[in-house]
Amino acid sequence: RTNPLGEREIILRSLAIPAIEHLAVSRDQFDTMDLSNNHLQRLDNFPKMERLATLYLGGNEISYVDARNLKKNVPNLNTVIMTGNGVKGWNVLSDLGEGCPKLEYLSLVGNPITRRQHYRLYTIHKIPSLKVLDFQ
Q1: Considering only CA atoms, which of 119, 63, 56 is closest in space to residue 88?
Q2: What is the rounded CA–CA span in Å between residue 30 and residue 10?
Q3: Which of 54, 50, 64 is nearest to 105 (CA)?
Q4: What is the structure's pLDDT at 25?
Q5: Would you give per-residue pLDDT tens digits along the chain (136 residues)?
Q6: What is the reported pLDDT for 7?
Q7: In 27, 39, 134, 135, which residue has its Cα 20 to 30 A from 119's Cα atom?
Q8: Residue-by-residue DSSP string for the chain
Q9: Is 93 exposed, middle or buried (0-12, 13-18, 19+ CB in 10 A)?
Q10: What is the strand order of the sheet 54-56 is part of?
């Protein structure tokens, strides 16, 4: 299906998915992937998906990001929406910056990290390509 932006989108929302696996069957045919409201704890194990540019990950339990896997297998990721997850540590922000060199849009609203002092400044420092943080 295509979304209103004309992008090819796969919706895997609210399926109680515990881990990212078997996505290679999509054969890199999608621009956008919606994995919202599942039970994901880690952002890792992506197959080669050079076309993928947008990830919706809201409402999961993500607290770990594998920078090496993202950089190698999802090199064109420019939008990540991770509202309402379990991001607590600065290391997750560093890993997102390292793993997503083209990241322009990021939302971490509703994560514990957003309540920490200097959160916005640190995030902008670690992800210099960022244009919009938390929809602002």
Answers
A1: 63
A2: 7
A3: 54
A4: 83
A5: 777 777 889 899 999 999 999 888 888 889 999 999 999 999 999 999 999 999 999 999 999 999 999 999 999 999 999 999 999 999 999 999 999 999 999 999 999 999 999 999 999 999 999 999 999 8
A6: 83
A7: 39
A8: -B-TTS-BEEE-TTS---S---GGGGTT--SEEE--SS---EE------TT--EEE-TTS---EE-HHHHHHH-TT--EEE-TTS---SHHHHHHHHHH-TT--EEE-TTSGGGGSTTHHHHHHHH-TT-SEETT-
A9: buried
A10: 9-11, 32-34, 54-56, 79-81, 105-107, 132-133
Place of tokens 């322009």: 104
Q: Structure tokens of 62?
A: 């993500």
pTM of the entire structure? 0.91
One-letter amino acid for residue 131 of the chain:
K
